[in-house]
Write a structure and sequence with these properties.
Two copies of one chain form a homodimer. With 192 residues, the first copy, chain A, is mainly α. Chain A has helices at 5-30, 37-44, 48-54, 57-81, 86-103, 105-115, 125-148, 154-174, 180-191. In chain A, helix 5 (86-103) runs antiparallel to helix 9. Chain A starts with a helix and ends with a helix. The model of chain A has no long low-confidence stretch (mean pLDDT 97). The interface between A and B is large, with 44 and 44 residues. The structure holds a DNA duplex (18 and 18 nucleotides).
DNA sequence: GTCTATATTTGGATAGAC
DNA sequence: GTCTATCCAAATATAGAC
């Protein structure tokens, strides 16, 4: 008796997810260039051939991971949107961003690495573009918050805030013993 | 009549410098991985074989560029050391760092890209290590300055300052129309 | 749905002539 | 001191069997 359609779908999704997760793990450990298709297939416990059945090679896997990262960033902004007061929204952004890094510093490091890809790179620059744009969206969103907080120059304030926040994220991702809590207090004191 | 020893030395240095410059240009444009030895040789106007006569392949060229970058960072600290008052020193650091990026944003972007290389990368992680250490040295140096400025917690202050400064550098290197002057004023107001 | 075997390409590196 | 020709390894991608 052949497998049911539902069963096949389940298997397909499971295998695809398995490969996707393995790819991300490899990327975080050794980086995009240094991981081979073979590494990913081995970690997922499947053959190279099967991998090509599900993804368009290595770049397809990267594309998926970038989509996931963008969703993660968006989620923080959406959560903040749901709150009433601008100060609460800002607190939520700080907390969301920093706890993501604290939880997975290598993930942030990887995407920052991708984001700082040279612009002329034929294949990879499109992903750094996407991440740059997402950062811009975040800046716009924050500008609106500062506007509601009645600060003098909301756009400038938002840019300065973004700079500080991303600098903190950068150093967190590089230095394992970064004193996140005390620095976070400082940031809140300065901007909220 | 054979060339004199001096003449040979001059030619050697000139060729080596020519290749080194070409490599850096390629790296800035397309990144380390995406540039081939052939690209570098072509841009320098020499053969691949000659390149190997002067450098230990692509990684040797990268090593040299990292040394240059470290020297550049050190130069800012040394210039600051020469000043008397701590506030002047801090101003010099800010000005030195930011004007370097303003002048060559792609350069900073490239080295940040290198610095965020995953730790497990066999060949390249050593260079990110070097850059990380140089960043730490800068932090230590700034701690001493804040100590002389009698701030409450000099180390914490230095870390917070480093975070903001590097965040600004990051955004500068990504967004071409970053309003560097006004942000710089903000930074000076907050820390000096 | 999954595997093995193979074709193809790319690019780093070397040897030897001039 | 410089070049051309060649080798070699690695890794992507595909074809066809089970």
């Amino acid at each position: 008796m052949p497998r049911s359609r539902e069963e096949n779908d389940r298997i397909r999704r499971s295998t695809m997810d398995n490969i996707g997760t393995a790819a991300m793990e490899c990327f975080l450990e050794r980086g995009y260039h240094a991981t081979s298709i073979d590494d990913i297939a081995k970690r997922a416990g499947v053959s190279k051939g099967l991998l090509y059945n599900y993804y368009q090679g290595k770049e397809g896997l990267l594309a998926e991971s970038v989509r996931d990262r963008v969703d993660e960033i968006s989620a923080v902004m959406e959560a903040a949107s749901a709150l009433a007061k601008p100060r609460e929204q800002l607190l939520r952004i700080i907390d969301g961003a920093l706890s993501q890094i604290a939880e997975n510093p290598k993930g942030y490091r990887f995407f920052l690495h991708l984001q700082t890809q040279p612009e002329e790179d034929e294949v990879l620059s499109k992903y750094s573009e996407i991440l740059n744009q997402e950062m811009s969206r975040q800046y716009e969103f924050q500008s609106a918050i500062f506007e509601r907080m009645q600060v003098e120059d909301p756009k400038l304030r938002s840019l300065y805030f973004s700079s500080s926040l991303h600098g903190i994220m950068l150093l967190m991702s590089i230095y394992p013993d970064y004193p996140i809590e005390t620095i976070k207090e400082q940031l809140i004191r300065d901007f909220c």
